[in-house]
Amino acid sequence: MKLYEKLASDIEEQIARGVFRAGERLPSIRQMSRHHELSITTVVHAYLLLESKGIIESHPQSGYFVREATAAEQPELRISQPIAVSSHVDVSRLVLSTLRSISAHDAIPLGSPYPDPTLFPSEKINRRAYSIARRRTQWGVTDALPPGNPQLIRQIARRYLQNGTPIDPNEIVVTIGATEAINLCLQAVGKTGDTVAVESPTFYAMLHAIERMGMKAIEVATHPQEGIDLDALKEVMDRQPIAACMVMPNFQNPLGFQMPDEKKRALVDLITTRRIPVIENDVYNELYFGDVHPSSLKSYDSEGYVMHCASFSKSLTTASRIGWALPGRYRDQVEKLKFLNTLTTPTFPQLAIAEYLEHDGYEHHLRQVRKLYAQQANMMRAAVHRFFPAGTLTSQPRGGYVLWVELPAGVDSMKLYERALERGITIGPGTMFSVGDTYRNFIRLNYSYAWSREIDEALKTVGQLAADCLRERR
Known about the structure:
- The chain is of the alpha/beta class and 474 residues long.
- The chain has helices spanning 3-16, 29-36, 40-52, 92-104, 122-135, 150-162, 177-189, 204-212, 230-239, 261-274, 331-342, 347-359, 362-387, 413-422, 453-473, and strands at residues 56-59, 63-66, 87-88, 173-175, 195-200, 216-223, 227-228, 244-247, 278-281, 306-311, 323-326, 393-394, 402-406, 428-429, 442-446.
- It folds into three domains: 3-66, Winged helix-like DNA-binding domain superfamily/Winged helix DNA-binding domain (Arc Repressor Mutant, subunit A); 74-80 and 364-473, Aspartate Aminotransferase, domain 1 (Alpha-Beta Complex); 127-362, Aspartate Aminotransferase, domain 2.
- Helices cover 43% and strands 13% of the residues.
- It is globular.
- The model has no long low-confidence stretch (mean pLDDT 92).
């Protein structure tokens, strides 16, 4: 056996015995070389052999890590089974207090809904903004009127074309983030007292829009890897009038799934047949982990019942809050409501983003972010399975930057949230993602921030606190 093969065999045995666990960093090549008194070349060959066998993986500028167990080796989350009853929505106070605590306590942001801003090309966008300001010093209200800046609209349309979905630029209405786009779309198709079908769990921004309109939500069973259960959705539609559906087919927050193409097509067929609009929140569509850009519901829509909403806030910059809607047959109503609600979207950030998209390598930036998120998703899942109580289950994100965690039934996520905050750590309690109490023992975690000893220790602490909650219940 050659020296590098012997070293690889020894490391593999240590991993099998649990000396190095899934997601843990191996000693650096230089450290391993000194410790075993071997050449750097020998260690490199050993690590490459282990990597080729799928036992370890390299993380750029971070080193080598033990690979997480494959999805097939880990227990999966079960399909949700919410009580399908229309309910008034009142989650805004809980969400607001949670978000305030994240910023006010300067805590480790495991509960943050926002991506790590240090990953964004802020300097390039700021330089574009500065250049625009120097070239043009006067701005009028008419420059920012709906539907939005023509230069940005062209760039958005080109991006869709590059990703395989040709769209009509005239359909685009630029908004102040995806949140405004979602609110405008819902306002265009519903009224106070109407019922809206949502996934379960669902992103609380969708619930906010329903609450704001004085509507009711009905939660529909949702598969953790394939999305909303279409049979359950049909039953809901058969039983009562539904004004609209609200879904996130790509990398849903908090589950992280990517709905299969055939299911996306079937969902569009269903809502088209029933003539019920569907509001598609696609803010994470650029943050996929695979090799191919995901399709959207919009790409299967021929009758205009898909109201597609997206933004640059998750993939490029949170500072500018530029989003847009592709509202289909409801386009004129959305544009009118945009004018009545907020009048304009500031032109200055629209132009800065448009020039960045045209000249500064958006795709290169995205490739780096996608690779990093995919690696950190594996590390976060491995750490949760290592540190949290037995019986803990996690989602299997296909994109985005959030992980959904099901704790043993005896753990109260609100109590866990409060105890973690006392120790300078935030988590997202599961009760924010439902109109009921279905997800009392669930939490959402953010893995967009660079992996560090502090994050590793924070996860260990949260796991210990969860175990304490479990013991108290017994």
